[in-house]
Protein: Olfactory receptor 4E1-like
Amino acid sequence: MDPENHTRVSEFFLSGLTTNHAVELALFTFFVVVYVLIILGNILIIFTIAHDQHLHSPMYFFLSNLSLIDVCHSSVVMPKMLADFLVDKKSISSEGCEAQMFFLHLFACTEIFLLTIMAYDCYLAICNPMHYGTIMSWKMCLQLATVMWMRGLMHSVSLTALTLNLPYCGPSAIDNFFCNVPLIIKLACTNIHVLEMLLVATSGLISVVCFLVLVTSYVVILVSLRKHLSEGQHKALSTCAAHLTVVTLFLGHCIFIYLRPAKSLAADKVVSVFFTAITPLMNPIIYTFRNEDMKNALRKLCRRQIDSQDK
Structure:
């Protein structure tokens, strides 16, 4: 098809999660609650870490970064998804679609690098505690944070630029509730085989490699320390177990979506819901209820608020 003879698509139409209006209203209520909990839960973690001196350590510095990313990540998709539950015509402008893709890949890629850094931090805390403070200094933490955000930005810019350079002249229907690169490039009126392979080679394989490295590292830690654990190492292992849960939920989506050709599957929407809503909700729950230091800090914060109100 010659794109020169066709009008460029100015908006895309989203299929949403369902076409049943009653179900849409129920989902609207459910996801409003989920979104509010994501915002409040992750902001509470950031606030607690910032105001408790005992949590001013590398592990909690990276945890606050994770909470910030989760707030931003869910906010890219969920407000639009909630608005679409209330309307019949679910459309998004081409500029809005481009912005969604850019920020989704920025926060998703940054989170992949952050989870890898958190695994390294966990490894040092358990396997090399004597040199942990020297290796994981605040200067190193800031450098790692800068690198992960820059790498996420580079990945997002390059992938979005490649997608934008494709000609779109119809059709314009996206079989999901947000703009995602695999589904968008499928709508291009040109051959996308090379771009599909590039997408698999970058996002797909990066996700697989990171997932295998992270799982292997945790298996090594668990096997090497299973018989002689100090109290501090028990706490570190609890944190690692929570971290591994987050990694599985998050990278599982990336592997499922990007390690295959660009086509729609029945499970895509379910997996996408976990990626954009459930995982950002689970992170504060997992890290709070599995972490004694966080629970103690939250109790102190609540007591401080109650005492200030009594005065």
